[in-house]
Amino acid sequence: MSLVVLAIDPGSTNHGLAVITFGPDDQEEILVREIVTAVELEPRLLSLAELYHPDITAIGSGTSSKLAAKSAANAGLQDIRIVDERNTTIEARYRYLSETPAPWYMRLIPKSLRLPSTHCDDWAAVILAERMGRG
Predict the structure, then answer these.
(1) pTM for the structure as a whole
(2) What is the CATH topology of the domain spanning 3-134?
(3) Residue 27 to residues 1, 23, 58, 61, 69, Cα–Cα distance (Å)
């Protein structure tokens, strides 16, 4: 039996979303990884709830977590949990740089010195889901 986790990395203007399934033997599949605006959050959560029927909704404990929890409840999501999001931004930046191919000249610079070319809120949501699914 697999576990489906919907994770929200709430921010002041943008929210990272991820839906991940965790199967037997620690198999993991990222089904959704995206960034939405505050206005788009509740309608998108409603559509994700209908499509994937998540077992757990994990919400990062930082900025706007209470508003995100309210939107999740309004969308009919169950088992809403507030998750410690300490270090998720740093981990998300590293994950983005690991998963996104860099131009050849950027590979000469260590990952610890590179900055992502876009927001990483979606990767932070992936990390929150992984913390909930594995932990």
Answers:
(1) 0.88
(2) Nucleotidyltransferase; domain 5 (3.30.420)
(3) 11, 5, 19, 26, 28
Torsion-angle region of 101 (φ positive above 0: left; ψ -120 to 50: alpha; else: beta): beta
- Report residue 68 as tokens: 């995100």
Please state the φ and ψ torsions of residue 33, each to the nearest 5 degrees: -150, 110
Rounded to whole angstroms, what are the CA distances from 25 to 1, 17, 22, 53, 67? Answer: 11, 24, 9, 22, 35
**Residue 67: half-sphere exposure toward Cβ, Cα within 13 Å:** 16
Query: What residue ranges do the domains of the chain occupy?
Result: 3-134
Structure tokens at 83: 């998750």
pLDDT in tens, 54-65: 999 999 998 889
CA distance 64 to 10: 6
User: In the predicted model, is pLDDT for residue 109 greater than 70?
Assistant: yes
